């Protein structure tokens, strides 16, 4: 569906509002998706990026980056839940503390 510039090329992306709108509209073909000509972001240089562009979300963008194609690798299919970054970091820190404590007892 994010095929402006790469027609007919499948992409693996995270779910977002654009995908939900496209799905709710019955997965229309290019030329018919809802909001197809919406400008969702612009670059520092002033280049407009439309809703279904294949452009990458990069730090130089201003606007609704979450509505762009948010590309994901194959490992995204292994994701079982979505958690806040803070919760993931807290778990990582706790597991690291436990591993370091266990390693120090082996000395």
Secondary structure: elements and pairs:
Blueprint: H1 17-24, E1 39-43, E2 48-50, E3 61-63, H2 85-105
Antiparallel strand pairs: 1-2, 1-3
Report on the architecture of this protein.
The protein has 2 helices and 3 strands. It is an alpha+beta fold. It has a domain at 17-79.
User: Which regions contain 5 or more consecutive residues with pLDDT less than 50?
Assistant: none
Overall average pLDDT: 90
**Beta-strand segment tally:** 3
Cα-atom Rg, whole angstroms?
A: 20 Å
Largest sheet report: 3 strands, antiparallel
Oligomer: single chain
Number of helices: 2
Task: Give a concise summary.
By secondary structure, this protein is of the alpha+beta class. The chain is 27% helix and 10% strand.
Index terms:
single chain; 107 residues; alpha+beta; 3-stranded antiparallel β-sheet; 2 helices; 10% strand
């Amino acid at each position: 569906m994010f095929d402006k510039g790469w027609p007919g090329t499948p992409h693996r992306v995270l779910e977002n509002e654009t995908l939900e709108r496209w799905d709710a509209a019955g997965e229309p073909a290019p030329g018919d998706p809802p909001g197809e000509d919406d400008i969702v972001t612009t670059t520092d240089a002033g280049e407009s990026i439309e809703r279904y562009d294949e452009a990458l979300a990069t730090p130089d963008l201003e606007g609704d980056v979450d509505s762009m194609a948010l590309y994901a690798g194959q490992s995204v299919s292994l994701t079982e839940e979505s958690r806040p970054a803070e919760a993931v970091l807290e778990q990582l820190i706790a597991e690291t503390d436990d591993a370091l404590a266990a390693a120090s007892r082996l000395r």
